[in-house]
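Re: folding output
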Amino acid sequence: MRALDLRRPYPLPGDPARLARLTRHLEARLGDFGTGGPLVLSSCQDTGRIVARFPNRSGQAIAAALEHNWGIQVAAEGEHVVFQLSPQVLFEDLDYLWGCLFSML
């Protein structure tokens, strides 16, 4: 099981263009679910913050399942899930996250 912390930004220097690419990548992967999948409510390429809502599931339930089953830590804000990316996150980690969400949904 991987350990992936997407709860807060890390103040390490990084390439802003890479952060923008990571943000677009995760936003596109979340959109791959289509109807019944997560709905991206906001996405900021400058900060790497993506807020999504998962129909018929609470943000807390999604966050708890990701951490318990797959070692992925995300923030829950009410009914929403917040993914906070940093330039140090690997594209492979985002694909792992997508696969875990796919297994869960």
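--- second protein (sequence, then structure) ---
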Amino acid sequence: MCNNLVMLLVALPVMAGWNAAQPPVCGQQPAETPPKKKTGRQRGADECRPQPTSEARGEDGDKAERPFGRGRFWMGRNLFPLRPVPGDQGPLREGEREELIRFAEENAPAAYEVLNRLRDENPEAFEKRFLDVVPKLRALRRVFETDSELGKIIVQHSQNEMAIRQGVGLWRRADSEERERMKREWRRRLASNARLEVRAAQRRLQRVESDREQWIAKELAALLEEGADLAAEPPKVRGLVESIHAAADDVERQECAGQLYAVLSLRFDDEVAALRERLADFKENAPEEVDRRLQRLIERAERPRRDSRHQHP
């Protein structure tokens, strides 16, 4: 029955005639109706959003492929995430080393240049460093497979970060004139990255919104998987899932599924609206944000480096 149920629920977008205000036929417990005078973020925050857990933050393997993470339509704290998932970990399969090196050469030339130089100078250090970056290369390759333009944005962002990190190590040895030049360069790259973060978030939003019904249906099907972990979900969602599984017939099951689909639709729309609001705020305050990032960068560069050789036990 489980497979048939999931197929029914994935097709729910066609049931557009279902009315969220319709009296429920869902077990013996009437479903709550949305507050009349609440919209947008307020509505979703009250009853639709699960509590954030590691799984909800998108750290759960393939489930992180949902629009904003497992059980929550959220992109994470940063506007510009590239976090390898568990599927990106693990040993190299046969031939994958050459594939990833070739991918880096074609799509991330700065990273490839660093790795290639290290391979020539110190093969042992290269081996360790390469294995460290394998998960990120796999994650980046996944991005390129679905959205090459987003992949290019990520590479450009990473190149700016790499250039900034290299400069941090030179700060303490630089004179005042050189430091002013470095600050101008850092500001330029930080401002570039702020613009790239906005572009990346906009592209992800466009992709998610264009496939809105599919994302919602996928989330709904995941909630109904056998053994699904519902601990992060609010009581309303848990109750609807339980009612679907306990429904006496297809009519009752369909009513409960329609209500759950409506709840997930509200959650999706609320999170998208919230992210758009964050993006608008980010763009409006971008100069101040660049100032803050530059100040934190300078403070980090000025901190004395710890040298374990001179530390007391």
